[in-house]
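Handout, page 2. Input:
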Amino acid sequence: MQHAVGSPLPPPHRPGHGPADGWSPAAHHPGAHQGPAPVPPPPSPPPPPAPPAPPVSGYPAPPSGPAPRPAGVPRAGHPPQAGHPSVPPPETTGHVPLPPGGPVAVPSAPQAPAAPDPAGTTLAVLLIGPAGAGKTSVAKYWADHRRVPTAHISLDDVREWVRSGFADPQTGWNDHSEAQYRLARRTCGFAARNFLANGISCILDDAVFPDRPVVGLGGWKRHVGPGLLPVVLLPGLDIVLERNAERSGNRRLGDEEVARIHGRMAGWYGSGLPIIDNSQLGIPETAAVLDDVLARSIASPPAW
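Output:
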């Protein structure tokens, strides 16, 4: 709120109005004393100009006279002449305002007799599975071959943004690794909501355990929204062990750890979520099955 400070400014002075023109107010009233006009004193001579300041050592003295007018700038009070170049407008920053990323609503199936086509629909997909199930490879392929813009967001990639102080769960699960997992999930959720708010689909992949619904599936639902479509990718244990052996770095787990994770993932059977067994499927075939599963999920969203 703006507050007025002091009294309003008087109107600007105009020639011929008021005593500033050298006229006495009495000259405009009849009957005023009309005496002889006083003789003005002779004007005093102007002061001599000040000598120019000595130049600073190493720098030339500034030029005398008015500053040169830049090219293209008209004189004050004169509009630019025809054919005269005008001053170019300032450059813009290129900032593109983005709409706010709110929770993703449950997608509605189009009112058509044919089955919904997920390849041309803006979706938010959560691909669940154990280490070695092929989540990242399938998610990348699925995102690469859609007819609408689609982003792939991997929880492991975001989690590994932490360089110094990275809490690797392979060295022991503790409060730090738990906190970094939670932070990575929340960051992925924010990114997905921003992409979806701008018409870009998202597929996220994470090893969500069915026995931890508050942290896993419930956390994703809070971060992204109820319109998130979860799909479980669960091949056989022998396939998971074989694919895990081909991995390197901190993403390669021990066989016992892989078997333990795979056993916990079996809890998704009977949960109501769609499950894809890609034991005998390549990446393109698994992506095609994923499209079919998503079409059914759009027509009848799973309760989770």
